[in-house]
Amino acid sequence: MTLLFALLGMIPAQAPADDLKKEAEKLRLQVRELQDRMGQLEEAAVHDAQLIQRLRAAIKTLELASHVDPLNIPPAPGNVGGPVAVIKGRVIHVDSKFNFLLISIGREKKLQIGYKFEIVRRVFDNDNPDGRLQKIGAAEFEKYIGEEQSTSKLRVVEGTAAEMKIEDEAVALRAVEARPVEPAPPVTGPKNGVYKITGLAGRAGSTGFTINYGSTDKAKQTDIVFVYKDGVYKTKLRLDTVTKEFSVGNVITPPADAEHTPEVGDQVFIRELQKAMAGKVALVDEKRGLVATDLRQRDGVHIGQRLEIRHLGQKIGILSVTDVQAWGSWAKLEGDTKLEVVQKGDFVEAVDGK
Q1: Which of 70, 191, 277, 294 is the 20 to 30 A CA-CA neighbour of 246?
Q2: Contact 220, 242 (CB under 8 A)
Q3: CA–centroid distance for 157 within its chain
Q4: Cβ-based neighbours of 246, under 8 Å, separated by 6 or more
Q5: Does pTM top 0.70 for this prediction?
Q6: Which residues lie closer than 8 Å to 6 by C-beta, 6 or more apart?
Q7: 249-257 contact pairs (CB < 8 A, 24+)
Q8: Rounded to whole angstroms, how far apart are CA atoms 159 and 182?
Q9: What's the mean pLDDT in 37-43?
C-alpha cells in the first residue's frame, strides 16, 4: 500500500519536466531560424553594398566622360548649327556658381548638342509700353534633365548666369536653310531707310518673311520691326535670323484678318510709324504746282519741313512745306521731283527734325 502511494506521488512531479523539455526544444528551433534569417540578411547586405559600389563607379565614369551623353541626339549631317523652326523656352533655374541654366523645353524639341540660345528679357519703358526684348547673354544646349527629359541644361557662353533670371526667355539661334526661299529676289541695299518684305521664309502659309534689312543696316536678332502698307499698320515681326544683307522675321501675333497679313512688297520700319511725322497726299494742284498733305499744324509740321513722298513703297521725290494750316499743309516740289507722278493718297513722311 505504501508503495502505491509513492508511485502516485511521482506522477505530478514528472509532468512539469516534460513541458519544460518541449519548451526548450521549441526555443532551440526558433534560435536556429533566427540564425538562418540573420545569415540571409548579411548576404543581402553584402550584395547591396557591392551594387552600390558599382553604381558609384559608373556615375564617376560618366562624370569624367561628360562629353559623351547618351541622352543627347548627335548632330545631323549637314546641320549648320541651329534649328530651322523657331524654338523658344523660359528659364526655370539659374545656377550662378556653376554658370548654367535649366529651361522649360526638352526632348520633344529635338535639341542637338551645341544649339545656341540667346537669353533675352522683356523690358518696359516710356518709349516701349508694350515691352522690348533686351539680350542678357547666350548659352549652349548640353543635355536633357529629369526622368521625362522635359527640361534642358544650357551652359552659359556669353555673359554670366548671375545676370540671368527665372522667366527670362531662351530663343534658339536658327540655321539658315540651304534651300532657297521662293525664288529669292536679288538682295540689294535698301535706299533711304525704307525696308521691304522680299519673300516668304518657308512654304505657303508660313509666318516667316524675308526682309532686305541685315546686319549692315544694324539689324539684330530678336529686334521687333513694324509692317505697313502705304502707311497703314499691319503687324509686328520678330527677327529670328539675321545675315549681313537680309533677315527673316516671324509674326509675333497672328493677324486678325487677311488685310493685316504681311505680303511681299509691304514696308518694314524699325520703329512704329506713328512716332514719326507721317501722312498722305490730300490734293495735287497742277495749276499752282503744289501738293496738299494732311499733316496739320497740331501734328508739328512747320514751314521748310522736308517730306519724302512714296508711291506703293517707292520713293518718288521730296517736298518742302510752304504753308501750314489747321486742316493740313501745302508743299512745293524739290529737286527733280515731277508733279505728274504724284497722286492723291501717296505716303509722305518727315525726313528731318520738327
Answers
A1: 277
A2: yes
A3: 17
A4: 187, 198, 210, 211, 212, 213, 214
A5: no
A6: none
A7: 249/208, 249/209, 249/211, 249/225, 250/86, 250/201, 250/207, 250/208, 250/209, 251/207, 251/209, 252/224, 254/207
A8: 37
A9: 76
